[in-house]
Design goal:
single chain, 9 strands, 5-stranded antiparallel sheet, about 140 residues, 2 helices
């Protein structure tokens, strides 16, 4: 009987920016995917009041996934994500190059070394596969 050997890579990430309330909550309030690109709106709250709204735009992308932070507990172990920011670039160990996937999943993305971005909030998070560096603006 063959046994699978799984090696789980530690996540390495770089802060890109976008403030996130350190003491309050934050969430993804809007996702828009159209031919014009992928737009993600992140809102930060302090004492239940929205204090900051950020728009993150990818002019193009290969794909993305949205998950509750409870489904990404391995990401919680990465100290970089404990910073008060919402936008990061995954250098290694993320969805495209560190997580265990079924055979023939993400083959093209892995072969082209597409860049991976991570939008973190206290309620939901998004992994985005895109070679385009996202723009970030306060709205």
């Amino acid at each position: 009987m063959l046994k699978a050997l799984y090696v789980i890579m530690d996540i390495e990430a770089k802060i890109i920016g976008g403030g996130r309330s350190g003491s309050g909550e934050s969430e993804i309030s809007e996702i828009s995917d159209s031919p014009a690109g992928l737009i993600v709106i992140v809102e930060a709250y302090t004492k239940g009041k929205a204090t900051q709204r950020q728009k993150i735009t990818f002019s193009s992308h290969r794909g993305y996934r949205v998950l509750d932070e409870g489904d990404l507990m391995r990401y919680e172990k990465c100290e970089t994500f404990h910073q008060p920011y919402c936008l990061y670039q995954i250098i290694k160990g993320g969805w495209s190059n560190g997580e265990i996937t079924e055979p023939d999943i993400l083959n093209v993305s892995k072969a082209t070394s597409v860049r991976e971005w991570f939008i973190a909030t206290t309620n939901m998070s998004i992994n985005v596969l895109s070679d385009c560096k996202p723009t970030l603006e306060n709205v």
